[in-house]
Every structure is written in structure tokens, then in C-alpha cells.
Amino acid sequence: MDWEYDVVDVFTETPLAGNPLAVFPDARGLDDGTMQRIAGELNLSETTFVLPPERPGSAARVRIFTPRYEMVFAGHPTIGSAWVLRERGLVDRAAREFVLEEKVGPVRVRVDAGDAPMLWLTTPPIAMGRTYERAQCARALGLVESDLLEGVPCRLATAGNPNLYVALRDPAAVDRIDVDGAEMRTLLASEPEATCVFAFAPTAEGAYSRMFAPEHGVPEDPATGSATGPLAAFMMEYGLAGTAGGTRFVSEQGTKMGRRSLLYVLVHGEKGRTAIEVGGHVAPLAKATLTLPAARDRAAERR
Description:
Elements (H helix, E strand, L loop, with lengths): L1 E9 L8 E6 L7 H11 L4 E5 L8 E6 L4 E2 L3 H13 L9 E6 L2 E7 L7 E4 L4 E6 L1 H7 L13 E5 L3 E6 L3 H5 L5 H8 L7 E7 L3 E8 L4 E4 L3 H13 L9 E7 L7 E10 L2 E8 L1 E10 L3 H8 L1
Helix pairs in contact: 3-5
């Protein structure tokens, strides 16, 4: 049997930059295990599988897999899948808003006007978690404690996927990160869920960022939309970003990897009463077909 899929680069307007994503726009007939194996085979940070919605008012149901795990929510898969659905006519291109059904719940997508519009997702509810010892965080990143931004704790925050946020003094410190795998495993050993480490430095435009997710099978991620909403909340919490209604800034990520990504943020409301949108562009890269033998053929092969 054949399944079509698209490969797109998300949070960029330039092919071969941003964060690559494979999208299967009609994944009916694929079981959970096969989806996971396909994601492992393609070995991108995420692969998505689109299915008919189960909830009224949703345009589609989207399942998101890293090479190792299924995610409840992720940003570049949401934006990239929404773009593919619009391009294939599976969502009305005239619609300026629609909802994608993910394991975290309904995720609202908003589309700017224009021929090559930016797409925005509304970040699910954000929760702040515990703090971590600063020197240990520095060691896990191959840095020293003086590289960390003074007066800002290392702290967990999540919008479905837990991230440990580490604020650094400047972009040069972010670029100097050289992850110590043993220290990273020790740092995250007590967490019940696979946890990512998101390091950033405040800039005039917003933030210069890198994200590491070895427990997800992603040594470094070029663009992490699910972490960028909580990044905005974290920066607001510690006075690193404006808190006025309509705050807008950008997180630059992936540059050190050679895959520069720009993740735009809109904060509506004030601290404690905010809705955070994360937006970006999408660049199409490839269309392909995956061919798998039918179930009965696979059974015959095993015999």
C-alpha cells in the first residue's frame, strides 16, 4: 500500500533551513507501531500523521512522533501540518482560523492574509515547575555558572512537553554550549517525563536560543514551537521581555546548526492573564510516496 507525504521546512521561508517535518496527510490504515517505525525511519525531529477528527469543530486530528516517542503537542508539526492541509485543499484556504485536534487537546491555528501567509498557533495552557541547581545546569551544557544570566533561576515550564529553561548572559555563551551527555542524564534523571533543555539569551529582538532533547532522540532541535510559548512566559515572569498587551518578539533558533529558524511570538494581555501565539513561515521541500506491504503480505514474509 502507498501513503503520500510531504516534507516541509518550518519557521523559515528558505528551503533547507528551519526545522524539517514529514507530514502524512491521510494516515488511515497505519497503526500506532507503524507510525512510530516510520518516524524512526525518516529520523526527523518529528513526523506527523493526519487522521479524521474525533471532536466536533476540528479540521483534522494530528498525531506527532519523534524518532522515539509520540508527543502530545509540538509547535513546528502543528504549523507544518496546517500548511500542508491548506496547500492540499484539505482545509479551506479561505479560512483564517481552524482547529487541529492533538493529544494535548484542540489547538487553534490562525492564518495571516496574503499569498504566503504566516501561520500562528495558540499555545496550550502553560505551567511553571520547579527550579534546578544553576551550577549543575551549567555543567550539563558544558559551561560554567558565570555564563548563566545573574538573578534568573533555571526552571521547568511546560505547555504539554516539559522544558528546562536556562538563561545565559549573551548569544556567544549560547553558541559555546557543548552538551555533556553524562551530566545531562544526571540533571534530568529525577524527571518522570522526557524533558528538554532550552538555553537562551535575551536580545533586543527577543531571544537567541538552542534546544536539546536527547531523551526524544533529538540531540538538538532547529526550531521548537512548543517551547517558545513557555519561553515567552518565562521571560515575562523574570522581566526579560515586555509585558504590555500585544507584545511581539522573535526567537532565533537553529543558527549554530546551520538551520536558522525564526519563531515569532505574540503575547495578548498582561502577565498572569495572557494568550500566547507562536507563528512562522513554511517552505515546501519535497513530495514523496511511502510503500509498505499489506498486512497479509508482511505475515507471509514472516513465515
